[in-house]
Amino acid sequence: MTARVLIGESHVLKRFSSATAAQAALDRAEALLAAGIATPRPARQDADTLRFPRITGSSGGDLVATLPHLLSPLLALTRLKAPGLRLDGHDPLRRIRPRLALAPASVARLADRQAALLPPPGQTLCHGDFHPGQVIRTADGQSWLLDLDDLALGPAEADLGNLIAWLATRPIPSPDPLPLRLVRSRRDVGACWHLLGGRIDAASLSAYQTLALIRRALKRAEGGDRSLLDAVEALAGQGADLAKA
Predict the structure, then answer these.
(1) What is the mean pLDDT of residues 199-205?
(2) Which of 37, 53, 69 marks a domain boundary?
(3) What pLDDT sits at residue 15?
(4) How far apart are CA 101 and CA 152, in angstroms?
(5) Which of 38, 162, 193, 215 has its CA at a distance of 20 to 30 angstroms from the CA of residue 63?
(6) Cβ pair 146, 58 in contact under 8 A
(7) DSSP state of 163
(8) Is 243 among the domain residues?
(9) What is the pLDDT of residues 111-152, one digit of tens each?
(10) Where are the beta strands (DSSP E) in the chain?
């Protein structure tokens, strides 16, 4: 589900591809709100456009230092059982397939191997594109979960793997090589998740994390920056486990 976004002073307008897609987004938000998940409540602007209240607070990189605030709404989401929603299974290859022509053969083979290791989607909710920009922490201490466009059925490891890849590859100066950043990000996310009471299947997390890393590398390569893809290719060519490198 894709949408065009217009941000105003007090609201956010999201225009969807169709009235059906807009209704699906409205239904998702209402279902999560009814289940106790803090997410902006939309109202219909017109047939294919929804109007959301603009939530202001800390988000993105500002939340990296306070992982419990970032992960708490995700944990609450994963403890719900698809509340009256018809959702597809999460497909981490959806954004990889269109860019596979950019992938070196070793990276394409790695994506295939990891995809074969993925568990069935099950009945747990996953955000589908979780990273620090999808949460806003307001001054009253509430963590709001944003952007439900990719909400799907899938294990928590799908979202945690995406977060780890985001943290390890965010564009900030670092003298550390990619393998060390991946290890550190996985350690920090895993420790916080366990502290909050969540559980992790290590093998599943490794597969999702590696696919999320490949997705980010291909997206950047599509924009002209191949540095991350080159780093992933080097590790894949060495037979390294990108989740434990």
Answers:
(1) 97
(2) 53
(3) 95
(4) 27
(5) 215
(6) no
(7) H
(8) no
(9) 999 999 999 998 899 999 999 999 999 999 999 999 999 999
(10) 3-7, 11-16, 43-46, 49-53, 58-59, 125-126, 135-137, 143-145, 152-153
